[in-house]
Recover the amino acids of this structure.
């Protein structure tokens, strides 16, 4: 048999995949690997026309000095006595836009598959080879982090990446915002106010007067004319009474 498959990847990634037995096993379509066995060992169901034959066997891929790869496989029917032996050669050649993979070799089989039409068997083998080579050329997804290893930390957000709100009408509030942006910590008054409000009801917080820097400045008390007269009248009466007493005392002495 001779078959060629062209895939849109360079030659080297395919060589790396063929050198990894576990990758080769994952590329065989429908292979159910046996636990604890070699990577390319297990059960494979081959569909031929309206029939299907399940085989249990092992495959091996070996690199040769001339740059080709030898593929050898032995399998036995899972529910019968039929056997299959493959001896294939894979040749990789760079071509425009990818790599041409040429498959040459022989296959000897007996049992149920030997009783099926030759054209159907050839089509099933061609379909299997196409899917195998295309799977080798498909990059595998990145492996998740192993258990016990910390996940990569997210990059911290810079202060310059944070949206700056428009300036308020309160200069004191603007200064507090600038202090928070520089130090990353809330001012002492804001922290104290936040701690004080914790545990208080929403109604108390809404009606509580502001404290600290934001407390309103009491208006200066002005002295009105009425207030001054209220204190001046008793004082004047006291002065007049004292003058009368002093005058009478002087008259008596005379």
């Amino acid at each position: 048999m001779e078959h060629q498959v062209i895939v849109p990847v360079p030659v080297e990634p395919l060589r790396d995949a063929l050198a990894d037995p576990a990758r080769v096993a994952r590329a065989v379509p429908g292979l159910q690997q046996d636990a604890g066995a070699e990577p390319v060992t297990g059960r494979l169901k081959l569909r031929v026309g309206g029939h299907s034959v399940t085989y249990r066997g092992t495959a091996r891929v070996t690199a040769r000095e001339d740059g080709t790869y030898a593929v050898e496989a032995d399998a036995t029917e899972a529910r019968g006595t039929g056997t299959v032996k493959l001896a294939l050669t894979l040749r990789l050649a760079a071509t425009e836009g990818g790599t041409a993979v040429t498959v040459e070799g022989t296959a000897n089989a007996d049992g149920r598959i030997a009783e099926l039409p030759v054209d159907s068997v050839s089509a099933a083998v061609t379909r299997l080879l196409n899917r195998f080579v295309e799977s080798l050329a498909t990059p595998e997804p990145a492996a998740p982090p192993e258990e016990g290893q910390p996940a990569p930390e997210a990059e911290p957000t810079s202060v310059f990446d944070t949206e700056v709100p428009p300036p308020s009408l309160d200069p004191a509030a603007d200064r507090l915002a600038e202090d928070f942006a520089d130090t990353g910590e809330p001012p002492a008054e804001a922290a104290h106010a936040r701690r004080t409000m914790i545990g208080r009801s929403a109604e108390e917080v809404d009606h509580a007067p502001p404290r600290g820097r934001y407390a309103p400045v009491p208006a200066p008390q002005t002295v009105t004319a009425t207030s001054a007269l209220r204190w001046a009248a008793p004082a004047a009466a006291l002065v007049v009474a004292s003058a009368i007493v002093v005058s009478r005392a002087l008259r008596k002495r005379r």
